[in-house]
# Entry
Amino acid sequence: MKQPVIKSILALLFAGMIGAIFLWPDGERTGEGVTDGDPTTVFTLKGASQFDEKHAFTRTLRKFEELVKEYYGKPVEFSLYLNSELGLEKDYFAYMNQGVSLDYAIVSPSHMSTFSPAAPLMDMPFLFRDLDHWNKVLDGDALKPIVDDVAAKADILLVGFAGGGTRNLIVNKRVTNMKELQGLGLRVMGAPIQTRIFQAIKAAPTVIAYSEIYNAIQTGVIDAAENEAAGIRQMKFYEVGPEICLTRHAITVRPVAFSGKTFRRLPADLQAAIIRAGREAGAYGRHLESAEDAAILAEMEKQGKLRTHPFTERAELLRLAEPVKVAYAKSIKADDVLAAINAVK
# Structure
């Protein structure tokens, strides 16, 4: 049995064991809609990250914890599981939806598509014009219909927006133009829009689990993947895909998610602290990752771990992607959201 499969099974077993143990002392639980908590009660909230303490996502969650403590003003404990100890982001979303094992995490919008078909629009390639446009969208209300949809259908609150990495192609050979891109075997995330966009720009996308990317490139199952600099460094993708094609096809949106089932069991003042902390921690994470992204890539190139190559026909990528974006937004009844994003100046 492959190691990632074993790891996923162990994560699920572990989740099952701790799922019945919630966050009140002595196993005591309170009812829905709690407004006032016992001042002697110390709540413990559980979070997860696929990465180590150095990664921007983990540091963002640490900031979230710090701010919740500050704004709540009463004792509250956090237990953050790192390095995929509780599985992957798709597992985190399932746990939060079920209200077991996990209360908060950063999750890619692609993993929300089972509940909210509109959610992956937030992470659609070629969605944002630049970092300034991206920041203004995330600070405004353009994404509110998606946030409301995820809350209603998945019972998960998106309390903040982190992210900020610029995603490029990680390739085992040099790719710089449309001819070299055509037919490139490329791993993409599971949301259908990811496959459609990369098909439109003439690559050959396939959905593979994040934990399988390294082996898939190494064994020739695929030629490439796509990720931001922090992920390339953390997962050592440069060892199997040292040629980085600078398509700059996406600026990541990574929501700070919180279980609705957990949230409703908390006192009103802790709920308020979580909402405030989520927004501020998300902004902190965006600044952190967007500022570090280019520096990380440059550092790895200086160390000889990878080589970057500008994509010389990026305007053609934008042209090919545009009708797919419009059609996809219409198909999921999110054309108003796309229009609102495009209208942000």
Observations:
- The CA atoms of residues 3 and 297 lie 29 Å apart.
